[in-house]
Amino acid sequence: MPSEFQVVLMAGGHGNRMTTLTQKTPKALLPVCNVPIVIYSLKLLERFKFSEVMLITKSSAAKALGQLLEEYSIQIKVHVTEIPDESDLGTADSLRLVKDKITTDFIVLSADLITDIELHRLIDVHRKHDATVTCLLAATKEKTDAELILEQNAKTKGVERGMIDYIGIEQDTDRIILFENEDDLMEDDSFTFRKSVMVAHPRVRVHRDILDAHFYVFAKWVIDFVTVEKSFSTIKGELIPYLVRKQFSFLNTPGRSQQLKEILQDNYGPLAEKSGQFGGNPLKCFAYVLPPDDGEKNLCVRANTTQIYCEANRRISTCYAELLLQNQKDMPMLHPTIEIAGKKYLEVVKEAKKQFGGESMLGRDCKIGLKSSVKRSIIGKHCTVGEKTNISDSIVMDHVTIGDGCVIKNSVICSNAHIGANCSMDRARVGASYTVPEGTTCKNQPLALGESLEQV
């Protein structure tokens, strides 16, 4: 399988939905269970015996990447293509940067994806149908009535759109018949199917609760089309919806369709103008749908918002060692170098496990003060926590200092931040290198350099 497919790993995202967290740290390097998120993708590729990958990332991330590859013993050969930090290239734009290196069918995946997929299942679907593109989709658990009501209320209040995809899948074949984001639908979120499409594909189920994992397998000729048709900026938002729609066209109109037709003819020979369904159109878009995550398998999460990033840390804390191809005993939840009230961890193992519970992770060289507790939280490397401080359901990144007498709940504190004594923080997001003054009370607020602090 590896020699049959090349891999492009997209690690250049800005993290526009989690800007407090990515102000100083590229999204691909944000830690999940104290490991940069991009490492999980590289380990997935290693697991399936890929020998090399083309990685596209920001210049600032590229500088740190070499050290990380060595630190985490990455065996796969990584060919890095840098893009300037200030650039605003979409994923299709970025793909063009490596067009001359792509010579086979190829895989494109996002570095913010963490999954335990058996990759051969996705590849088998692609091979079976000789597909133009095969998308990894992940089913989600059914929402309760209360969750549906909350979602509808949020929508009415004008909360950010663009988070929901409408994906129509033929039930018998898993062929993708519809692939549209809510932003591209009519005002009432309605859409239409042509009669000829419904006749040819009568059993289609439209999903709006399914995750597009941003993991795609493409036919080689798609890079040729993207190269000549430069109007596409993104893969998920523009290219794939276009390919899905064009499955059911005769490709006789000028512009994009004509260019597509010429490339298809170069790869498949002359296309019949009228014979067969849709003029013998060889475009075929399929999906492999991963069943819902049951807590033990079918993990598929994209850490592309602050909320999902927090959920990813909690979920992956139960299986991070396996995902990193390591033995759990070699990656303990509580690092043996931590100190508790001035004593080495190994001297107070039993007390430490009670103090931190079984669901917390503490990184290398952490120092925890007397009578402080850490519950269901992840603490990064070289952090210092004062006395009588309680941290719960939170993520604290590397080199953070937290003073005495603090209460921190449901919060994310980025690297090198300093939290003064006697602070109370609930659902706070503290940016890198930010200093929170002593005695601050903060609830549901982002705090980052350049922003003013509002006391609650």
Mean pLDDT: 88
C-alpha Rg, in Å? 24 Å
Q: Low-confidence parts lasting 5 or more residues at pLDDT below 50?
A: 144-150, 274-279
Q: Count the DSSP helices.
A: 13
CA distance, first residue to last residue: 56 Å
**What's the count of strands?**
32
Please state roughly what percent of the residues sit in beta strands, choosing from under 5%, 5-15%, 15-25%, 25-35%, 35-45% or over 45%. 25-35%
As a percent range, the share of helical residues equals 25-40%
Q: Biggest sheet: strands side by side, in what order?
A: 5-4-1-6-12-8-13
The shape is elongated
Secondary-structure-based class equals alpha/beta
Largest beta-sheet characterization: 7 strands, mixed
Walk me through the structure.
The structure is a single chain. With 456 residues, the protein is of the alpha/beta class. The protein has 13 helices and 32 strands. A seven-stranded mixed sheet has the order 5-4-1-6-12-8-13, sandwiched between helices. It has a seven-stranded mixed sheet with strand order 16-15-18-21-24-27-30, with no helix packed on it. A hairpin with a 2-residue loop joins strand 2 and strand 3. It is elongated, with a radius of gyration of 24 Å. It starts with a strand and ends in a 9-residue tail after the last strand. About 3% of the residues have low confidence.
